[in-house]
Amino acid sequence: MDSNKVIIVEGGSDRKRLQRVLAEPIDIICTNGTVSPYRIEEMLMPYEDCDLYIFFDADESGEKIRTLFKRAYPEAIHLYTERVYRQVETTPYRTLAAILIAENFEVHPEFLL
Q1: TM spans, by residue (predicted)?
Q2: Phi and psi (nearest 5°) for 69?
Q3: What is the pLDDT of residues 31-60, one digit of tens each?
Q4: Which residue stretches of the chain have pLDDT < 50?
Q5: Bridge-partner residues for 28, per DSSP?
Q6: Exposure winner among 59, 89, 103, 113, fewest CB in 10 A?
Q7: This model's pTM is above 0.85
Q8: DSSP letters of 76-98?
Q9: CA 54/CA 41 separation, integer angstroms
Q10: What CATH number has the domain bearing residue 71?
Q11: Within a domain: residue 96?
């Protein structure tokens, strides 16, 4: 683990999209679909001293998983894509960069143009 920040996303496509925008080493964890409170705790145990960022899709399944994370980790910071894009993987890079910069992540400058 290279950072004290961790981003949790739903799937591998979300992770790849964020990795392309980020200009700093960040651990990005995929839930790979439906998760239980026990699975969440197990998945995040190695990251208990990190700042958690939740970045799920703006759809029904994303909101269900987000609700579980809000209960299990109320201190986590929630990032939201615009509803018009619905999914993190379909959100334009420039929009992702703006969302990440707002939370003090370093992004590649070409995504700010």
Answers
A1: none
A2: -70, -35
A3: 987 688 888 888 899 998 999 999 999 998
A4: 1
A5: 7
A6: 113
A7: yes
A8: SEEEE--TTT-SGGGS-HHHHHH
A9: 14
A10: 3.40.1360.10
A11: yes
